[in-house]
Amino acid sequence: METLWRGLLEALHLLLSGDPEIWAITWRSLRISGLATLISLILGLPAGTWLALRSRIPGRRLWFSVVHTGMALPPVVVGLVVALFLWRTGPLGRLGWMYTPTAMVIAQVIIATPMVVGLTATALQQQDARLRWQLLGLGASRRQLIVLLWREARLPLLAAVIAGFGSVISEVGASLMVGGNLRRSTRVLTTAIVLETRRGEFDRAIALSVILLGLAFAVNYALTWLQQHDEDGEP
Q1: Residue 235 covered by a domain
Q2: Alpha-carbon distances of 109 from 35, 101, 128, rounded to whole Å
Q3: Residue 67 domain flag
Q4: Burial (0-12, 13-18, 19+ Cβ within 10 Å), 231
Q5: What is the pLDDT of residues 182-225, one digit of tens each?
């Protein structure tokens, strides 16, 4: 317990003292995971919609099985696959993305996208099919239909964003493998925690953990506030 309390005090000290390295690591974590979540939403929202609305897709059950498996995909496996592609002898090695934030974003997108696809498809499948026919009967185009369905399912779709962000802000395996935990370049909160733990700097590791939990809570609170605010319809 004494170590835990020292870690909490260290976290408070690091934040109040304005430690530039801590703030840089925190901002880098938010930037990489936020960008990965945004890209996964851009990719996953249309893919999940396509799966939900196209009931006659060949091998539809197989696609759903692939998506559900991807939702439980181990980050270290993702890191290994991305590393094999980005390594200097790999197919994309000439791009020089290995051990860069770009590689970390790619890995996190692969982790988060199945989560967004699966939750989007589930949200749209739960809607009454008569709503689609009613909208089409009123003359809605295919694009208008999809936008209106997204609007009706906005609460579970926000939950998909929350789940996608949560799956990447806290992952460490893929980030270590493709980012390398390089100071001032690819070091994020999770990889910094691993480093400090290996050094035996448990106070600092606990402090970084507290900051990570606080960051995750702040972002998820903001998204949850939007979700519940919309549901309650209150100002």
Answers
A1: no
A2: 9, 12, 31
A3: yes
A4: exposed
A5: 988 999 999 999 998 888 877 788 888 888 888 888 888 887 77
> CA torsion sign, 174 to 176 to 180 to 184?
positive
- Identity of the residue numbered 193: I
Is 45 within the bounds of a domain? yes
Give the HSE-up count for residue 66: Cα atoms under 13 Å, Cβ half-sphere: 10
What is the per-residue DSSP string for 120-179? HHHHHHTS-HHHHHHHHHTT--HHHHHHHHHHHTHHHHHHHHHHHHHHHHT--HHHHHHH
* Residue 235: band (very low, low, confident or very high) from pLDDT cuts 50, 70, 90: very low
User: Is 16 inside a domain boundary?
Assistant: yes
Checking if the pLDDT of 228 tops 70, the result is: no
The percent helix, strand, coil of the chain (3-state, each to 5) is 80, 0, 20
Structural domain harbouring 173: 2-230
Residue type, 60: R
Read off the tokens for 66: 């692939």
Of the candidates 63, 175, 53, 197, which has an alpha carbon nearest to the alpha carbon of residue 125?
53
CATH of the domain at 93: 1.10.3720.10
Q: Do the Cβ atoms of 49 and 77 come closer than 8 Å?
A: no
Domain count, the chain: 1
| pLDDT exceeds 70 at position 43 | yes
